[in-house]
Amino acid sequence: MHRCVCAALAVLSLVGASPTPGSAPPRSVPWKASRLDKPNEHVIFLQYGETEPALKLKETMPVEELNPTHYPARRAAAVAQHFLNARHGSPYKWFHVEQVQSATLEEIAGVGAKYHVVFSAKEGVCNQSVGLCTADVLFPEAGGDQTAPQVQCSCEGPLAINASAQEEAFYRRLRGSNSPVTGNNIPDSFGFIAPDMKPLWILAGVASSFVMLKESNENTLYNLAQVANVTQLESEDKQLKFQYHVLLHEMVSQEIIHWKLLVTWAPAGGVSVLHPERQPHCHDCVLPPATAPKERSDPE
Q1: According to the UniProt entry, where is the signal peptide (predicted)?
Q2: With left for phi above 0 and alpha for psi between -120 and 50, is residue 270 left, alpha or beta?
């Protein structure tokens, strides 16, 4: 009888023992990003896999409801707006957030802050609603090199808005011109944009979304303030090519940030931004009066 009890205790001690040094640890899967193409939808789909104990811990973490009119919710929606423009924008397609309907925040230990936002949006050139959009915006945990937020976004209405007639006419006009188009101070100090400059202004907004998406974090809110200058360059292929100098307004710090962007576009190929280059800080730069932000009344 005594020998049986000892044997049982020995078996139990083996069952409850910790892994020995050198044994294989539980396998965990890091964040991954992959493109998912569907009609009317072009998103980056985020997946996260982890070991069972970590997953249980994540499930118990509280999800915070956010006031949709306050800055944390609006910042996340602005990142989704830049995401939509970077993938669907053109000189005649520029998407804007109309109103944030709801927002939540989930802090994921070791990963970052995940915002879930629902907002109404529209395409501003033809003033066409795209209905409600739903986005998950993950801001990576602070520390180390700045990494772009990871975004998953889809909308009820069509994002592939048909502006082919306007785009083709604009494209043919610039391809057939003997003198490359140039422009300065768009809009001017009175907020005026000449009609023939509006497609170039919108293209600057779409191209700037590439930069604003990459540079955004939980403490920023970017907006295109002005095109300091734009020059059409010669192109060896069917793409139109432009050199832009844009002023981005970071509304939290009130800083005006200068960027030079080499932008290419064609109706068939979409917008691409090559060699974005941040310019040195300008102490004397001021925001154009026409684009000065309204006084903030909601909390950070």
Answers
A1: 1-17
A2: left
